[in-house]
Design a protein that fits this description.
- With about 325 residues, the chain is α/β, with parallel strands linked by helices.
- It contains ten helices and 15 strands.
- It folds into two domains: about 150 residues, Quinone Oxidoreductase, Chain A, domain 1 (Alpha-Beta Complex), CATH 3.90.180; about 140 residues, 3-Layer(aba) Sandwich (Rossmann fold).
- Strands 3, 4, 5, 6, 7, 14 and 15 form a seven-stranded mixed sheet that branches. It has a six-stranded parallel sheet with strand order 10-9-8-11-12-13, sandwiched between helices.
- Helix 10 links the parallel strand 14 and strand 15.
- Helix 3 crosses helix 4 and helix 3 crosses helix 9.
- The longest helix has 17 residues.
- The two termini are about 15 Å apart.
């Protein structure tokens, strides 16, 4: 089969298309024919060799995918060849490939109304958004959440999940197209974070009290600003960050504010069960509808890694092994 292989850490150019043996389903495993593989910012960090998770070389990148079960291993009784599924696997588990063998417990049903590309947008983004909102911030119906950077894969997921749970959602973005998508997916208020005084508009939208909860996708740029507009007893969840930031602790003290970090690497099996039970239900009821912003052939993995780090991305970037 064809797969992307990384033989040395470095820039996007270290990812090469290669031919590897077809995987075989072991006990408790399934082999999935990958129709779409999701690309996440964390994939780029792992590829550089500077991330907390440092895979043994060579490796095939990728956490997320969707496709059809091709074969099942011993003791797998609730899945069968032909089932449409999405995958939510572990770091660098190898979804940038035509096939992948993985634990049967890491594949989930994909309704016919959801495309494979949309399915590949679920694992990391939607699990991240769910964990940020409900495990870390303990978001409650009736609260106001600011999704600061709502147009990307995690942002759209957070908007949908928060709206479905009964929160009032404010979403920011940098393009008219992105803001329209954020509104269409459930945001009550959308604002351009390129506007000079958009924080004033956020305060007006909350009658001067500020949001109860902020999901922050670029903390090194926005964290100080977030603290300045957070409601009393509010919480900020740092979902993404690309550098250092200086803040005034008094902004947190005066509000009894909480700043929370998160990573999916710390999720327990119990929490994963809850997360994907909620996602499967949301897919079945039509509440969740991932956005795919760009589809690329598998061989263009390097292009995908460059694109995902650019500002203004809308939805998820996916790789298509069949192309």
């Amino acid at each position: 089969m064809r797969a992307i292989r990384v033989h040395e850490f470095g820039g996007p150019e270290v990812m090469k298309i290669d031919t590897t043996p077809d995987p075989v389903a072991g006990e408790g495993q399934v082999v999935v024919r990958v129709r779409a593989a999701g690309v996440n910012p964390v994939d780029t960090y792992v590829r550089t060799g500077t991330y907390a998770v440092r895979p043994q070389l060579p490796y095939t990148p990728g956490w997320d995918a969707a496709g059809e079960i091709e074969s099942v291993g011993a003791h797998v009784t609730d899945l069968a060849p032909g089932n449409r599924v999405y995958l939510a696997t572990s770091p660098h588990s190898g979804t940038y490939a035509e096939r992948i063998a993985c634990s049967a417990g890491r594949v989930y049903p994909l309704p016919a109304r959801i495309s494979f590309s949309q399915g590949a947008a679920l694992g990391v983004p939607y699990a991240t958004a769910y964990r940020a909102l409900f495990h870390r911030a303990n978001a409650k119906p009736g609260e106001t959440v600011l999704v600061h950077g709502a147009t990307g894969g995690v942002g759209i997921a957070a908007v949908e999940l928060a709206h479905a749970r009964g929160l009032r959602v404010i979403g920011t973005g940098g393009t008219d197209k992105g803001l329209a998508a954020v509104r269409d997916h459930g945001a009550d208020v959308v604002l351009s974070h390129r506007a000079e005084k958009y924080t004033d508009d956020i305060m007006k939208a909350t009658d001067g009290r500020g949001p109860d909860l902020i999901l922050e996708m670029l903390a090194n740029v926005n964290l100080e600003r977030d603290l300045g507009m957070l409601a009393k007893f509010g919480r900020i969840v740092v979902v993404g960050n690309r550098g250092r930031v200086e803040i005034n602790p008094r902004d947190a003290m005066g509000r009894d504010a909480t700043i929370l970090g998160m990573t999916l690497l710390n999720v327990s099996e119990r929490d994963l069960t809850e997360i994907h039970a909620a996602l499967v239900s949301g897919l079945a009821t039509g509440v969740l509808n991932p956005i795919v912003g760009r589809e690329l052939p598998l061989a263009d993995a390097a292009v995908a890694h460059e694109a995902i780090m650019q500002a203004g991305a809308l939805g998820k970037i996916v790789l298509l092994p069949d192309r």
